[in-house]
Amino acid sequence: MNTIAHALFANLLLLLGAPEMATPANLVINVVAAVAVDLDHIPSLGKAVRTLRFGQSSRSRWHELQGLLVSMIISVLATLYSPELGRVILMGSVSHYFLDLATRPTRPLYPLNDVTVFLEMAPMSLRGLFAYDTVLTVTMGVIWLWSLNGLGLLRL
Question: Which residues cross the membrane (predicted)?
Answer without folding.
Answer: 65-82, 129-147
